[in-house]
Amino acid sequence: MTERFRYDNRIAKDFLFITIFWGAVGMLVGLIAALELVIPDLNFAKWISFGRIRPLHTNAVIFAFVGNAFFAGAYYSMQRLLKTRMYSDVLSRIHFWGWQLIILSAAITLPLGMTQGKEYAELEWPIDIAITIVWVVFGINMMGTILKRRERHLYVAIWFYIATWVTVAMLHIFNSLAIPASLFKSYSVYAGVQDALVQWWYGHNAVAFFLTTPFLGLMYYFLPKAANRPVYSYKLSIIHFWSLIFIYIWAGPHHLLYSALPEWAQSLGVVFSVMLIAPSWGGMLNGLLTLRGAWDRVREDPVLKFFVVAVTCYGMATLEGPLLSIKSINAIAHYTDWIVAHVHIGGIGWNGFLTFGMVYWMVPRLFGNKLYSTKLANAHFWLGTLGIIFYAVPLYFAGFFQSLMWQQFTPDGFLVYKNFLDTLLEIKYAYWLRAMGGTIYLVGVFIMVYNVVKTVKAGRLIADEDAEAAALEKLDKEPGGHWHTWIERRPVQMLVWSLVAVAIGGAIEMIPTFLVKSNVPTISSVKPYTPLELQGRDIYVREGCYTCHSQMIRPFRGETERYGEYSKAGEYVYDHPFQWGSKRTGPDLHRVGGKYPDSWHYYHMWDPTTMSPGSLMPAYPALFQDALDTTTTRRKIEAMITLGVPYEKEYGADFPLRANAHLVEQSRKIAANLKGAGVETPIDMEIVALIAYLQRMGTDIKAAPASTTAAK
Amino acid sequence: MLKFIKHHMDTIAGIGIYPVVSFLLFFLIFLGVLLYVRRSRREHITYMAALPLGDGEDANGSNNHAQP
Q: In DSSP terms, which residues pair with A185 in a beta bridge?
């Protein structure tokens, strides 16, 4: 019996428009951040300094641009693949507005410096909870739609959506576990190495399950649609799906090669990362070969052009990823702009271009007319492509050569580039070119905005599109077939098995590091931070110092010569959250403690160029104007005690009450030191706390190097 | 020299089992999927592949979106 129903196009339209809006905003913020790197004076207010808006940029493009694009495509394709309207219009609305509110709160809190200090998971705990709720709303709506479908079998795109939902839920919850110290300040429940492992298990899989699997789902729907022919090999897509979700989940540790992470976990990450190339390229080839016999149309159709470049960029990024996971290559690329180039091939190439193709495909269909101008769409395509090249190529060069400079020695065995800054100034040209590439790319986006506005104005939204399909009959007898045919008919089981697949992966990766104490050898001289240092550390986190400075010295001669003793896992046991960083635009700071006098830091934070002429670091005058908020000290110490930091053992049971007295005492000492160097400063300024933290960093093992107790 | 490489994780009894379990798990699933794909019926695969094309999205026009 044929049933009549209507597709909800309004929700797809809303998500699509907001995608374009946040995309433009997120990329604009990225461009500002890029310019701040070459013109430090642009960091003129604390709310827009690089360390605060770089997380804003990454969060905006990942969760606002790519996230909304996924929702737009998913709401459009799911209804059609399942031959039904969405399960609930109300849930669709709640999902839409909830997600936008989350983004808005991110856009407010991140510039204010409210951050958990973990990359791509910066948002504070109340927002984390909101994300969980909205994600569950989306999940209910999606599963409800799947359950009331009129198509017995689930197309591969739907599996990708299901796996995305399940895995992102798991990753988000486990990585965001934190103990609040106040409404907008919390500490990760994990510390040091364990925090790093969870963070990069999350961070890598955010790439995998937020930027890749949902977009592969979109690719498997929109590419065949645009090419008007079925996917090259459906069989390959099945293999692609299961191998991809199984392998991806283990690959996280490749972000921590040569770090203090246990060797076996690093090796596990490397092996699975290298294996990833097989399913990734399977998927890429499946996408490109779908166009077999239709390549002539790629010449004329901007949608296909965007898709071809998107899939090609996916192929490039997923070739590069496994290569970068090989330790010897990683040793060169890690901490450099090579990685920045790599992620932008994925971000603006794969995600960006797939989204643009989708926009040009969906808007005329949603508004029942033709695209306003194919010419402008083509112009956008060429500007975008040019932008990608100008963005990425200089950074590849810059990253590679800067890394070589870091490790270059004279014949006598001295570092050629003693001063880190010299290596940075050598590649400043690439930062200019990158900003130029970004500008070109962004101009393309604005052309798209114009084209879309014109198209929309000339048409009318088909808010509810009529459709019809036969009702799904209840099967009296299960038809024969294999387990996969079986699972294609059972979305709930599919969801459960996807969860099992990714959960086992995550568990095997992490359980050993968590349960076996000997995995993190303890160092008896490592002590908790003093209250003042803890407050200083929170300023370090707030200002996003980790976006440019690492705290992880790898065991290479080029690094130990430059920075000092390489970093040990046991040194980070009280670091909630870890602040290893992933990019060195400035030098590593793990052994900066005691390297310079207090006054050096004082002048350097006031104006970096006074101590390092030519420095590209922002100045932090606000630290000299804002008094340290000591009302939070007690609760911060209490939160740390809850997390197992042994303050009570070190200082006595009533320490939270005495913490501020201790803080004032240490501030006086630092002020006295500064006075000795001719600097008069009130003791209650934030700069004092930051100096305390900087001077503490990495000094514990110097106190008693012989007392390192090996793991038993 | 070798001891630095060979005995790295000796402190955790049976740590080697984790990578082995992870690999076996993946390998078995992979074999299962491969087997399924090899044995699946052609009609079913063709039907599945054609799903996005037959969803009647073109209530408002044609599939030809290569507008001049």
A: A182
- Which of A192, A125, A320 minimizes the C-alpha distance to A580? A192
Q: Which residues of A292-302 are buried (b: 16+ CB within 10 A; e: fewer)?
A: eeeeebbeebb
- Closest residue of B to A298, CA-based? B66
| Interchain contact A151–B (C-beta under 8 A) | yes
Is residue B36 situated within a structural domain?
Answer: yes
A509 shares its domain with A540: no
Alpha-carbon gap: A217 to the closest alpha carbon of chain B (Å): 12
How many angstroms separate the CA atoms of A105 and A304, rounded? 36
* Domain presence at residue B46: yes
- What are the pLDDT digits (tens) for A571-629? 998 999 999 999 999 999 999 999 999 999 999 999 999 999 999 999 999 999 999 99
If asked whether residues A407 and A490 sit together in one domain, one would say no
Shortest alpha-carbon distance between residue B43 and chain A (Å): 12
A230 with B49: Cβ contact below 8 A: yes
Phi, psi of A658 (to 5 degrees): -95, 0
Residues facing A180 on adjacent strands:
A186
Q: What is the residue-wise DSSP string for A239-271?
A: HHHHHHHHHHTT-GGGGGTTSSS-HHHHHHHHH
In a shared domain, residues A632 and A509: no
Q: Residue B25 sits in which domain range?
A: 17-50
Considering only the beta carbons, identify the residue of A224, A228, A250 that sits closest to B22.
A250
Query: Same structural domain for residues A93 and A205?
Result: yes
Pairing mode, if any, of strands A2-8 and A185-188? unpaired
Indicate if A229 and A328 belong to the same structural domain: yes
Partners of A570 on chain B (C-beta within 8 Å) are: none
Q: Looking at chain A, which residue has its C-alpha nearest residue B43?
A: A234
Question: Which pair of tokens denotes residue A393?
Answer: 């190529």
A349 to chain B, closest Cα gap in Å = 22
What is the maximum alpha-carbon separation in chain A?
90
The beta-carbon neighbor of B12 closest among A81, A250, A516 is A516
HSE at residue A484, side-chain half, CA atoms within 13 A, is: 26
Q: Give the pairing of strands A178-182 and A464-470.
A: unpaired
CB A22 within 8 A of CB A516: no
Q: Does B8 touch chain A (CB under 8 A)?
A: yes
Give the CATH number, domain containing residue A544: 1.10.760.10
In DSSP terms, A3 is beta-bridged to A469
* Calpha distance A668→A671 (Å, rounded): 5
ipTM of the complex: 0.77
Name the residue of chain B whose CA is nearest to A466's CA: B59
The count of structural domains within chain A is: 3
Report yes or no on B9 lying in a domain: no
Residue pair A510/A198 in contact (Cβ under 8 Å)? The answer is yes
Residue A1 lies in a domain: no
Indicate which of A77, A229, A238 best probes the interface with B, i.e. most B CBs within 10 Å of its own CB. A238
CA distance A334 to chain B (A): 23
Domain that holds residue A499: 486-515
The answer to the question of residue B31 being in a domain is yes
Give me the number of domains chain B comprises: 1
A314-359 pLDDT, tens digit per residue, is 999 999 999 999 989 999 999 999 999 999 999 999 999 999 999 9
What predicted TM-score, i.e. pTM, was given to this entire model? 0.91
Is A233 within the bounds of a domain? yes
